[in-house]
Queue: 3 jobs
Job 1
Amino acid sequence: MDRFEELRSFVAVIDAGSFVRGADSLRISKAAISRNVSELESRLGTRLINRTTRRQSLTDEGLQFYERSKEVLASLEAAESELTTRSREVGGRLRINAPMTFGILHLAPVWTAFRAANPKVLLDITLSDRVVDLIEEGYDLAVRITRLADSTLISKKFAETRMVLCASPDYLKKHGAPEHPGKLAQHATVSYSYWSTRDQWHFDGPTGPVVAHTRPFMHSNSGETCRAAALAHQAIVLQPTFLISDDLRAGRLVELMPQYRSMQLGIYAVYPTRRHLQPRVRAMVEFLSNHFRVPQWHV
């Protein structure tokens, strides 16, 4: 038997003045409330209520126990009320992991704007291109840019980005522009280390999928480093529009072989579970969706 149910039954009988009215107040049967009180007395090894056919009264021990029981139940009710209120309030610590470059370029303004709208949230932001284990490492939410694989995690896509093959006009003037992905092995390239396909770059062309085998002179886990090599006229790179869209618009970089399209990647908010989702996590997911409703990097 639940000890709190025993206490609630005992207090209800005293407050209502009888077992019948106490049972009615708890919406249980008289037999159930009598059993609860009897089991309480049996567990304590003492009589709490003197019962006769006409009336009932508390024993000395019962009176003392009644007063303490009221305090315990009141404390429990207060604790539950406080927790319920807090569970509905957008507040508390929110641990987020996000990719380095995207985090610096596009998420940094989000944190301050979100904080202004939700001043009771304490943000704890970690930027890393490593795929973290949310549950193992204690993150509430992660931002991931990927073709999301099947996962036990819950995700919501809030934006997209396209991978673009590009180089600077000066590089192309000096080395020429490849006309087919198969020619990329003859060019200087810089590759992003975390691509699962590494030095094989995938495209969808006019006649179907094409795999280009490249020979990078440098690998880097930083998209900014890859971009810098292209802007320095040193290489052809394959980088996302969220990083290079301004360069493409300004003519500092030129898209190559647009008829061969590379990957379209989703940008997701990922979190461990949908059940009992904390209001601060839900608020951040909604904020990201609204903030990036019309991304600025589409070209």
Job 2
Amino acid sequence: MDLNDDQLLRYSRHILLPEVGVAGQARISDASVLIVGAGGLGCPVALYLGAAGIGRLLLADGDTVDLTNLQRQIGHATVAIGENKADSLARGVRAINPEIEVQPIREALANAALHEAVATVDLVVDASDNFATRHAVNRACVALKKPLVLGAAIGFSGQLAVFDSARAHSPCYHCLFPDHADEPELRCAEAGVFAPLVGVIGAMQAMEALKYLAQVGEPLIGRLLLWDGLRADVRVMKVPRDPACPVCGVGVVQSG
């Protein structure tokens, strides 16, 4: 797309970056992104992507805003308690950037609805808080060959990874964390979460999404970033593709 004068001014600090420039910002403004989850991670992701000018944002969450969310979910205000999170966050994004399209999806996406939403976008950000959703989103992204930016946060620890099944050697989420449906998992309500942690991981998810869409830098594909907030320590591990993976492995027949 051609950027108008207002857009050239609004996004001037991106355009000044030689790695981005007008062409990279135009790619961002042409792009569409699905964010699964409008909570602690989804809030900073949506606010940063909206501010950066993503042309179309889909925000999916079937939950409502609760008082306990407000300690970390910065896209929601106290007056939004009881409101659907996708609606509340969409309003916040529009307040920052009214020129982009923001579409709230007031349900937890699954099955055909999930595949339909994934099929309509250029990139998916998983900001959910449970393994079942992450594996479902991963399967949809692999089947439809859509890039996936995934983050997780609990306590003082966070994780970040990017998967892209359109690339021959990229692993998928299942390669990294095999699906064990009966495996127990910790939730924020049980283990707690340090408020700025979701901002740190969510901001990094937004950065990886924007880098990928603008075609700048090196995306975190085939690597897992581990953030220890207590020690301000970061580690990056290589993640190989599992040839026997039942989701993306060699010989697996993908269906849309």
Job 3
Amino acid sequence: MINERWVFHENAEPQDQGNGVVRRVLAYNKDLMCVENSFEKGAVGALHHHPHTQITYVVSGVFEFEIDGVKKVVKAGDTMLKMNGVEHGCVCLEKGILLDIFNPMREDFV
């Protein structure tokens, strides 16, 4: 729920995105959104772009990311900046969790 001060993980509704990806929308307001994405090994975040600036923090696992045509392998503790409009996607090499921060919020996620 927008502008909710306390968002407990157990209350964040898991949204099955199919093919081994589960999304949980966490705290957000109109300017900022935090989203957790859990990936099974082999799951794909298809190449896409959107008009939001996005930072992704790798909580756990190993992923091959492609950002603006450049591919790199990232692991827990790594972060990536994706400016608005830049094409990006990933393949999960080892089961893990990504934490995405968006500016502004992703209205299409709620």
